[in-house]
Amino acid sequence: MKFRLGIAVLSVLITSGAQAAELPDLGDASRTTISPREERELGLRIMSEIRADPNYLDDAEVAGYLTNLGNRLILGSREAQPDQEFEFFAVKDDTINAFALPGGFMGFNTGLIITAQSESELAGVMAHEIAHVTQKHLARMISGQKYSMLTSLAGAALAILASRTNPQAGQAVLVASQARQIQSQLDFTREHEKEADRIGFNILVSAGLDPNGMSAFFERLQRAGRFHENGAPSYLRTHPITYERIADIESRTQGMSYKQVPDSLDFQLVRAKLRASLDNPGDAVERFDSVLRDKRYTNEAVERYGLINALLRDRNYSRAEKELAQLYENLQSGSSNDKVKNHDLGKTIRIARKNGPSSPMIDTLAARVELATGKVGEAFETYRAALQIYPQHRALIYDYADALIRNGEPGTAVKFIDRQLQYTPNDTWLFGLQARGYEALGDAMSQHRSQAEVYTRQGNYSAAIEQLQIALKAGDGDFYTMSSIEARLKELRVMDADNKKDK
After folding, report:
1. How far is CA 156 from CA 100, 316, 444, in A?
2. Does the pLDDT at position 231 exceed 50?
3. Nearest 5°: CA angle at 14, between 4 and 467?
4. Residue 320: pLDDT above 70?
5. Is 484 a member of any domain?
6. Which one has a higher pLDDT value, 258 or 309?
7. What total of structural domains would you count in the chain?
8. Same-domain check for residues 176 and 74
9. Which of 286, 303, 336 is at the close of a domain?
């Protein structure tokens, strides 16, 4: 893939078929902004297309890390409204890019996450994105330009998506899109950029992160941009980085006492996991082997974690198990004299948890290795022990439920998921797992009912209604369940009708 550079923060990724007639009626163009409900509905529609794109990274740990970092920043934002919803996700793309969508959805390319040299640099970009949302920059632009702005952005998005696989096709789409209208908005956008820089900087400081992270990352992008002009057409750069912007950010740090902020272990592990997913598995294994062999690392455990992920992709399970034992020995080194011989994995894990630090990401990886090597009982033991320590780690929750379903315990999985949904009732992933659990149990009505909730939370009300209709036809539930489904069906029909009125 050709490397391109650009922070297209205000881009709207709408895939094929996005036309003005399919977008919500934004009413009078004189309105200063669209309503939060209209903005959220638009964001949900865009996200339904993004989730269907193969480049959407459906990884609970990466999304969970971005969400945790985002929430830390949001707590430091005075502008964020209590009812403002945010959702953070990643896109499999090696370009350095990030974007905010209507309704608080924020996407980050894997290339951006890997390129960031510190957690504060990544947080600087994220704080800037959050400021765009809290100041309603995109909502005001959409409202002010009405359909013309949306169709322009749709055309630009088509070009971006097409150019991933066919640069010539991307250029052809650009010719057909309303690129001039995007260019006409850049001056308007620059004012937003300055405001987002100022507010994002304050968010970064309030969250206890290094304020130099924002200017350091933008300055590196500015330098790199001089060598990648052909890969990032200026009319698609809705987020222009200028020396003036960098100077403004740097001036804010003057007079502030220097504070070194160490990166979190999760930041390092997420980047290692993403690096393990690059190219083919064999090449990824060789890269990590080379780094470990030459001792070109700052944290051996992090590099070995990446290696194990690459080995799982390469289906080299026996070596993955061996490296996992070594990883736990790395974690406990210096805190215990107990050494595990012959790579007794189970004993190594128990000793490491007792005597040294660990991480939910590492424990999740351990369970995956155990499942891959056929040690199902040990994997369940690892999941349960880790969930006692990290009860809110989403990947552990999802993996454990999935493992129960795959290994003949769907009833246990459904009960576990029911408990989790009491704490996170809008978790789309859990409803999807719940549907699979009911399917394994042969409970068609409950299966389609759960799947309806998946579609509802994705904004696809028509598909949700269809699932509930299938559930009613299944006829394998009691009177109370049938009545509950019928009541939910009425609710969704009202929501669907309201949604269609906005088109």
Report:
1. 15, 42, 42
2. no
3. 135
4. yes
5. no
6. 309
7. 2
8. yes
9. 336
d(CA 23, CA 414): 37
Alpha-carbon span 140 to 145, nearest angstrom: 8
Sign of torsion over alpha carbons 220, 226, 232, 238: positive
What's this model's pTM, rounded to 2 decimal places? 0.81
- Return the HEC string of 93-136: CCCECEEEECCCEEEEEHHHHHHCCCHHHHHHHHHHHHHHHHCC
- The percentage of residues in the chain with a pLDDT greater than 90, rounded to a whole number, is 45
Please say which residue of 200, 227, 253 terminates a domain. 253
Evaluate whether residue 55 is within a structural domain: yes
Q: Using the structure block, give the residue that is written with the tokens 């959805």.
A: 105
Mean pLDDT of 365-372: 95
Assess if residue 105 is contained within a domain: yes
Does some domain include residue 330? yes
pLDDT tens column, 421-464: 999 999 999 999 999 999 999 999 999 999 999 999 888 899 99
Three-state secondary structure call for residue 281: helix
- The token duo for 380 is 């369940």
Q: Where are the alpha helices (DSSP H) in 333-478?
A: 345-355, 360-372, 376-389, 394-406, 410-423, 428-441, 444-457, 461-474
Position of tokens 């968010």?
203
- What residues make up the domain containing 57? 32-253
Q: Are residues 307 and 171 in the same domain?
A: no
**pLDDT at residue 81 greater than cutoff 70:** no
Cβ count within 10 A of residue 22: 12
